[in-house]
Amino acid sequence: MKTPADIITRLQLMSQDGTKSDRRLASLVLSDLDFASKAAISEIAARVGVSEPTVTRFCRNLGCEGLRDFKFYLAQAIAIGGQYLSPEPLSRDAREQRIASAITEAAIAAIKRASENLDMSVLVSVAARIASSGNILCIGSGGISSMLATEMQNRL
Q1: Is the pTM of this model over 0.70?
Q2: How far apart are CA 100 and CA 11, in angstroms?
Q3: How many domains, the chain?
């Protein structure tokens, strides 16, 4: 079976376009990634109010072989981008300036976290390889990645 390329995106789509049960399951997973990655099938089914086979069908609808496969891809997504998946919620009474400040602060915090996790030896090695390359091909797969590829091409 083909593996899901981006389980979080698939969950977001499922929460909007899936069956009623799939929408409820996707919403549960997206609202509590930690629970969904660790809970037993019976706990997930009970929390949403569906049967265990419905949870299995949900996992298969996402492109996974079953719950174990789904949890594997979910754990991968959490490990890779978990710190960016659960931003702190804004209070309902926030004014425009507070919203703008919150967004800016969240962006700064994300950049700081990325910087703290950056391995400088790998960065220097990659930069040296790019600098010594005779030809560099920049490719995007649509949307923002295509714009970034074009920007990279312009800068190189």
Answers
A1: no
A2: 28
A3: 2
